[in-house]
């Protein structure tokens, strides 16, 4: 069984009773986000959410609405729809949160867009806001955001600590919805302030991009897959 994170491997081993000898970990891969110059965050801090709605969008929107009262220069881009999987009908249960996005003057709701449009938006974004309530086995949205030099605000649910590799501003997950909102709002607010008021994050983001572009690139991951498949073919795996 191929797992996309060591966290997932442990879950498979514990819950399904699959022996370690039958498991291997091959992490996800991305095409690195091209180099780009970010807009000045002192003029506007651009926040992005670019994954399906069930992963925490209903927590992000009220937090963003609250933070807009604390900051006058925020903007949120939301790329979120089950249409990416061909399940447009599943958007129905999130109509209210989509409508809240469409009505807010500082939120642009994009729905489903081609990948190149998302990449373009990541190039302009400063922060990936991801109050995850879905147990991620990995997270390609986080990988791409961190390749795009976005500060990432998320929690430690599932494989997110492994995926984000200590680069994210991470808080303790809780099942209590109000406590989750409070923790997320506090960390996101601090991250906005760091983005607006300090310059020491630029070096961190260069190191971050270098890590994710190399460790999670298809150029690197394809070689790992090649070694695994050759090992299976010659019986050494």
What does this protein look like?
This protein has 237 residues and is α/β, with parallel strands linked by helices. The protein is built from nine helices and eight strands. The strands form two sheets. It has a six-stranded parallel β-sheet with strand order 5-4-3-6-7-8, sandwiched between helices.
Strand order of the largest sheet: 5-4-3-6-7-8
Mean pLDDT: 94
Radius of gyration: 19 Å
Query: Tell me, what's the shape?
Result: globular
The termini sit apart by 12 Å
Query: Structural class from helices and strands?
Result: alpha/beta
Sheet-strand content, in percent, reads: 5-15%
Helix content: 40-55%
Q: How many strands appear in the DSSP assignment?
A: 8
> SSE string, helix = H, strand = E?
EHEEHEHEHEHEHEHHH
- Helices, by number, come to 9
- As residue ranges, the low-confidence spans are none
The largest pleated sheet is described as: 6 strands, parallel
Strands, helices and their partners?
Elements: E1 2-3, H1 6-16, E2 24-25, E3 45-49, H2 57-70, E4 74-78, H3 95-103, E5 107-109, H4 115-124, E6 127-130, H5 140-147, E7 151-155, H6 160-164, E8 169-171, H7 177-197, H8 201-215, H9 218-234
Parallel strand pairs: 1-2, 3-4, 3-6, 4-5, 6-7, 7-8
Short description:
The protein is an alpha/beta fold. It is built from nine helices and eight strands.
